[in-house]
Amino acid sequence: MISLAQLSGAQETPSSDSKAMFVDSLHAYYGSKHAIKNVTLKIMPNAVTAIIGPSGCGKSTLLRCLNRLHEVIPGAYVKGHVLLEGEDIYAPSADPVLVRRRVGMVFQRPNPFPTMSIQDNVTAGIRLTGRKRSKELAAIVEESLRDAALWDEVKDRLKSPATSLSGGQQQRLCIARAMAVQPEVILMDEPCSALDPIATLKVEELIADLRKNYTIVIVTHNMQQAARVSDRTAFMMVDMEDRTGTLVEEGETKVIFSHPKDKRTEDYVTGRFG
Amino acid sequence: MTRVRFAQQLDALNDATVILGEQAATAVRQAIQAFTLFDTALAARVVDEDLGINRMEHQILDSAALLLTLQAPVASDLRRILGVSRVASDFERIADHARDIARATLRLAAPPSVGSQGDLDLLISQASVMLRDGLRCYAENDPILARAVCKVDDGVDQAYAALFRDLLGLMVEDSTTIARATYTMFVAHDIERIADHITNVAETVIYVTTGETVELN
Q1: Which of A235, A261, B43, B103 is 20 to 30 A from residue A65's alpha carbon, by CA?
Q2: Distance from CA of B8 to the nearest CA of A (A)
């Protein structure tokens, strides 16, 4: 039973800031193009933060800055800081590979490794980082697939090719793969945009469950999805003066969708522009 | 503006609710007039016309539910539709009280004049001000007027309490007044409840315009 207090969004306060991220005065560039400017944002631990905003406002760019995927694009770079548990992931000593292990990513289109089986997809990341006994790997496969709410559907065909799964199952497999390396944060870039409505609802239920163990940041074009799955919402838009993406407002989802502070947020969530 | 059709639907829903409020206010005015002038023909008309007001409320609630379902509104749009639902119910209840006043008139065997006319007049005039300004603050989305409307409710409550005491005294003194005084008490109670519903309307106006939930009664 969900209590009225839970329904109205009263949440337990996280006991510590572990798994929290802090984006501090972040700017992102694609060569000479200034894509997002001066974003400062606290990402709450064990909560789902949704980033919404019109196309081209820098949502996905911001997301990719959170695990140093942005810099993979030739000419792309950032200025500013992103702290994970108080440590700057952009510090010279920080290892981007390790950062990406701690901050996993699920992409828009399900992208399982097509030549691998279901179970090999789950363990791909672990096998890259060191050898583990097959018994341990089997346990990780089961745990990750259970966490991704996929186990019951695939437990009898773990050796089948990942491509034999439906789109929704493939996306949950990708989530299982992201979780198998035990990240602290999972980033999701429009994870349901290629899925049908039922598969979408399954992934949304999964996101709600995952919050217990992970910090989640999700970029979505679907405002109702943001309203349904997230605890906090950040609204970004393009500053028309310099054509740079900027953070307009961040706050509790129930506030953003009921009485946002900024008129631009109100206009966007009510569909009056964008 | 990208949701032109939705904005038009919202406006239409709002306009219908304002019309419902005007019809309820007319019913109240006519019912009180019928009671004070002992005009049974007018009272009968108020009773008859209540059905139309009920139907209109249902149409508004159905349309509001449809917009909630199909348009998934948020923020001020959501508050506007929630507000329409609440206010439409309050207006319908106000019309029900008007109908009850009219029914009391029809049950009276003789004109209701039983003394205490001053208190009754005061109650009626204060409630009428609330009704007029309550409708206006809703139609004009005016949260400042809404707060002012709620303040008048204290005067209504005081006038009602004074009238109640007077009528009780009257009945104790002269038992021939009991039937008429009792109906007058019923009517006064209906008027006091109408003022309470107007307070609800004003609170809803504040919620719709500011997002703030207030209790001003």
Answers
A1: A261
A2: 13
